[in-house]
Design brief:
71% of the residues lie in helices and 0% in strands. The chain is mainly alpha-helical and 168 residues long. The chain has two domains: 2-65, Orthogonal Bundle (434 Repressor (Amino-terminal Domain)), CATH 1.10.260.40; 87-167, no CATH class.
Length: 168
């Protein structure tokens, strides 16, 4: 992934420019933690405009043989691929829940527990907590149906999912 490959060149360019992470982050209008994750190679995703601002602040160009536009296209394609894979996992899970109610009950119970952890720790937006709590407050076929009816919130709901343990 581009986000993991680009950190080394950013780190080297920052050091060559004599900048601290905080200075570069400030100049590029990027959080220092994002810059740190990039440089460490632990960033899974990064928005292309963040890369553009970093390279502009460093006075250099994307050093991977791609134009900024190509990098943005690749980053967007990677993001779309991740979204589609996430949708596919959730929709396959919905089919499994609807087709085997006895096996689905403990899975749904575990997902409900996860939502309650979010609620207790306030570790997720109340919007997602309430939407998932409502979706999980049905028998298995109803949970499956609810998972297919998030509409324009589908990607966000699946990204903030109590089912992530099911495929990790």
């Amino acid at each position: 992934m581009l986000a993991r490959k680009i950190g080394g060149p950013i780190h080297r360019a920052r050091l060559a420019a004599g900048l601290t992470q905080q200075q570069l982050a400030s100049n590029a209008r990027v959080s220092r933690s994002v810059l740190s994750r990039l440089e460490q190679g632990t960033a899974d995703v990064v928005q292309s405009d963040v890369l553009d601002r970093l390279f502009q602040a460093l006075g250099t160009e994307l050093p991977v043989g791609e134009s900024g536009q190509d990098a943005r296209r690749r980053a967007r394609a990677e993001q779309l691929h991740r979204l589609e894979a996430n949708r596919s996992r959730h929709l396959r899970l919905a089919v499994a829940l609807a087709s085997d109610a006895p096996a689905a009950e403990p899975l749904i119970a575990r997902a409900r527990e996860r939502v309650e952890v979010w609620r207790t720790r306030r570790s997720c937006s109340p919007r997602y907590i309430e939407a998932w709590a409502q979706a999980l407050n049905h028998p298995p076929a109803g949970v499956a149906q609810a998972m297919t009816r998030f509409g324009e919130w589908e990607d966000a709901m699946f990204q903030n999912s109590p089912w992530s343990w099911a495929w990790s």
